[in-house]
Amino acid sequence: MRSFIFGVVILASSVCLHAQRTIRQVDFKNFSYPLSSHLLGHTRLQWLDPAPGGPIKKPPVRLVNGMDAAGSPGFALQSVDYADLTGNGREDAVVVLRYDSGATQNTHYVYIYALDHGQPKLLAYCHTGGGANLGLRKAYAEQGQLVIEMLDRQSVPGNCCAAGFVRMRYKWHDGGFQISGQPEHGILKQP
Q1: For residue 185, pLDDT beyond 70
Q2: Residue 171 burial (CB < 10 Å; 0-12/13-18/19+)?
Q3: What is the predicted pLDDT for the residue at 106?
Q4: What is the pLDDT at residue 43?
Q5: CA 124 to CA 113: how far, in whole Å?
Q6: Burial of 61 by CB count in 10 Å (0-12 exposed, 13-18 middle, 19+ buried)?
Q7: φ and ψ at 168, to 5 degrees?
Q8: pLDDT at 59 > cutoff 70
Q9: Domain boundaries, the chain
Q10: What is the pLDDT of residue 186?
Q11: Which region, left, alpha or beta, applies to residue 90 given φ > 0 means left and ψ of -120 to 50 means alpha?
C-alpha cells in the first residue's frame, strides 16, 4: 500500500512539473496547432471550429524551432502577443502562423490560447485572406480586445499591392470572439 501511495505522489509531482503557471511559459515555437479547411485561396477572415472532435480534417501543424516540422515551404511562427482577452485576469496568447506555398500565395492563421489547469487550451482560431485580398497585416491584443488588421482589397491600385488596411476589433463574449465596433480603415505608409 505504501508503494502505491508513493507512486501516486511521484506521478502527481511529475504532472505538476509539466504544467505551466502562465501562458508565457508555453513554447509556441515547438508546438502543434490544429488545422481545418484548405490551406490557400482564402478571401476573408473566417473563424474555424476549435472544439475537440470538431470539423478538423487535416493533421495538425507541428512547429520545431518556429518552423514547419514537415519542411519548407510551409508554416512558420510569425508572432506571439499576450494580454487578458477573456476578462478573467490572466493573460492569453495571440499566436500568428504564416503559411507560404513556395510560390506567390500565402495566408495566415491566428490562434488564441488560454491556460487551463496548467495546459494551453485553444479558445479560437481563424485564417485570413492572402496577399492584398484581406491578407493579414498584424494581429495583437489591445485594451482587452483582439485586434486584427488586414490588407484592404478596396485600396489595391492596378491589382498589385494594397495601399490601405482594415482594422477589426473583437471582444470575447459567450465563448467566442464577436466584432466590437465598426471597421477602421487606415493608409499604409509607403517607404
Answers
A1: yes
A2: middle
A3: 82
A4: 75
A5: 7
A6: buried
A7: -115, 140
A8: yes
A9: 21-187
A10: 84
A11: beta
Mean pLDDT of 107-115: 94
Residue type, 105: Q
Cα distance between residue 101 and residue 98, in whole Å:
10
Asked if 109 and 127 count as a contact pair (C-beta separation under 8 A), the reply is yes
Q: What is the pLDDT of residue 94?
A: 97
Instruction: Give the span between the Cα atoms of 33 and 95, in whole angstroms.
Output: 10
Take residue 100 and report the three cell numbers written for it: 507560404
Residue with the three cell numbers 502577443: 81
The cell numbers describing 97, all together, are 502562423
Strand partners, 97: 77, 109
| Three-class DSSP category at 169 | strand
Q: Which of 148, 144, 150 has the alpha carbon at shortest distance from 172? A: 144
Output the pLDDT for position 14: 38
HSE-CB of 9 using CA atoms within 13 angstroms = 6
Looking at 133-185, list the stretches that DSSP marks H as alpha helix, in order from N- to C-terminal side. Answer: none
Task: Check residue 163 and give left, alpha or beta (phi > 0: left; psi -120 to 50: alpha).
Answer: alpha
Q: Is 179 helix (H, G, I), strand (E, B) or coil?
A: strand
Grid coordinates in use for 88? 478573467
